[in-house]
Write a structure and sequence with these properties.
Blueprint (H helix, E strand, L loop, with lengths): L1 H52 L22 E5 L8 E6 L5 E4 L2 E11 L9 E11 L2 E14 L5 E11 L2 E13 L10 E12 L4 E13 L4 E11 L3 E9 L5 E6 L2 E6 L5 E3 L2
Antiparallel strand pairs: 1-2, 2-4, 3-4, 4-5, 5-6, 6-7, 7-8, 8-9, 9-10, 10-11, 11-12, 12-13, 13-14, 14-15
Length: about 280
Amino acid sequence: MKTKYLVLAISILFLGITSCNKEANEDADISKSIADVEANVYSDEFEKSADVVSFDKLSSGNNQNGQNGQLPLCAVVTIDYPEGAPFPKVITIDYGDVNCEVRPNLYKRGKEIISISDSLVNLDAERTLTFENYFINDNEVFGYKKLTNTGVNEDGFMTYSIDNDLSIGEWTRVSVGTKIWIEGFDTMDPHDNVFLLDGSSLTSLADGTSISRTITQSLRVDRLCGYITEGIVSIVWNDSNTAILDYGDGSCDNLAIIFVNDQEFEINLHHFGTRRTH
């Protein structure tokens, strides 16, 4: 009888350990997916502010602090013309020495420096974004984001190549891709710009984890909404674990869905919290 009880106790203990290990693995898997999403949100924040002050939407004047409706009032914009001509030009967005709230749960300080070789509607024009004493949510940022005009595609839309190499806090990300300007090209309002993004990236975390992401359905970036509104991304870490990130059907919200280990999680793009939905 004692033997039966002992076997039963060991079985229960084994099942408990197995269950705990499974939950721990699921938590680790979702955390890797969230790390990739967080890196992408930060990267897009840099792109968003650079888009506001380039694409010929902000053509003249200094100290344009927050007047366009998309930069916070604490941001001060200055424009320099190093050769005394309209181009090249250098646009600096200075968020100050203390954290500036850009939107709920997102803070910046330091300088974003945008160097533009020519009007971005011209072939081969380049825009390079770099950083000076710059932090986002207290994570220091190094590196660059480069955009190059590659001409008009067969659908008549302006296209750009993407070349990014960023270090944000405890991770680094290298990415390449394309950006297509599909709406807002012929207006002076930066709010109505809509872009389609395609491409891939490789993110390295401090613990040695390597995360690759590939856009399998073009990401629609709606500047009026402020978030990616649709598109699908495949995420793979350490060459074996996978997740699918779905940004939705075009509705404007701060939510996305992650599918990992046959589970479905909703992720809040404001604070990166998740909840299991299925």
